[in-house]
Amino acid sequence: MTYVLILFLTYVLHLMLKLSWISTGIVLVFLLVMQHFHRKKHENFIEARKRFLDVSLYIDTLLYSFLKEKKIIRAFEDVKSTLEEGHMKSVVSRALDHMMLTFDETSVFVDAMKIIEDEYRCNRIMSAHEFMAHAEYYGGDINESAKILLQDKGAWERRILHNIEDRQRMFRQIILSVATSVIICGIILYLPILNMDISGNIIVQILSIVLVVLDDFIILWGQRFLEVDYLSVDLLPDDEKHAMKLEEYKNYNAKKEFRASLLMAVIPAIASVYLIYTGRQWPAAAAMGLTLIMLNQHRIGHRLMKKNLIAEVKSAFPKWLMDLALLIQSENVQVAIQKSREHLPVILKGEVDTLVDRLDIEPESSEPYHRFLECLTLPEINAAMGMLYAVSIGNSGNCGSQIEELITKNLEMLDAADTERLKDKTAGMYLLFLAPVITASFKMIVDMAIFLLSFLAYRVV
């Protein structure tokens, strides 16, 4: 069926772009070769979506079963019986076999669950496993922690499914843009002016082939946005450079940076004076503009750095707060903050270490909480830290409702931050939507130029 469709598409292009039979043969061979890559990327997309849906079902089944059974091994047995035959079920079976057949390890459950974590790199799986291991070893009330995990997982699932739909919709728009551009290019060749036909020109034929090739590569590139790993698409970068950026921002010295800007502005300023003296006004205006930019480059760079840091912190802070919310169910706030450093987003490492040090000195004071990320002055983070302080001191026995409010606000922050990050990661698809316009415009310009030359030659004759 695929090959029949390619033959039909090639014949349509043959008619629409007035391709010669040689050009048609080239296009046919190209499309037959490329269909292998398109099919592979489509299969990767189907597999990526299936992996995500399998993990979503796994987390739901595992947590609900653990709430009922209170035992890890029973929960895994329920998951195994629920899953359909496939890769996820085989991985769960391996983990379950490790639990049942290993007798000489103290961390048998952790090691067994790591089998699944290594196969499916997903923060939600790790959070569920850590929660279950902690409850298995230490006991305690697990209902509230499980509720938090399920709420977070539900919001995560909705975000990813919505993102998949957005990517598919934008991919269809890319295909529509490609089809429209080819149709417009074909219309140019059918303009009924003096019965002239430029389609036989070798340049027109070559450009038609190039148009098809470029448009096909645009579609192939669009498929790359569909085949991403949806389990890790919203993971934060773990590069130390993000933490270094925050430290660099905090250590910003305005006077020192202004002196550097002043030195950088000397050369364009001298050029401005020279150009004004020689009467070249427009170059002088450009040099003066460059001088102003150089004088203010430190302010511009500082503001851009702050904007980027705010975006990264808004994504990292709710994830850290989620770990805290889980730990607070069984620990006091100060101990929870110390333990949260095990899975801390890199960009927050320095700030949380500083917070722990300040709390060691002033455990009852609100000052350490209010000074957290004070360099960025983010109201939502200040409010969350104030609420965290209120939880730490108990505030008239209203701790339960305060924790619930903290969790609710955190889930809202996390949802907003991750939604924005997912939108940023699909922004490239909009550029691909515009790309066929560029390829078509170039071909149309050349076609019209050849048409004009042919028309002039016709008039001379």
Strand content: under 5%
Number of strands: 0
If you average the pLDDT, what whole number results? Answer: 83
| Count of helical stretches | 18
Uncertain segments are: none
What class do helices, strands and sheet pairing give?
mainly alpha
Compute the number of structural domains: 3
Rg calculated over all Cα atoms: 31 Å
Could you spell the SSE succession in H and E letters? HHHHHHHHHHHHHHHHHH
Shape: flat
Q: Kindly state the percentage of residues in helix.
A: over 70%
Q: State the separation between the terminal residues, measured CA to CA.
A: 51 Å
| Biggest sheet record | none
Summarize the structure.
The chain is built from 18 helices and no strands. The protein is mainly α and 461 residues long.
Which key terms come to mind for this protein?
461 residues, mainly alpha, 80% helix
Descriptive notes:
The protein is mostly helical. It folds into 3 domains: 2-223, no CATH class; 248-293; 305-425. The chain contains 18 helices and no strands. It is flat. The model has no long low-confidence stretch (mean pLDDT 83).
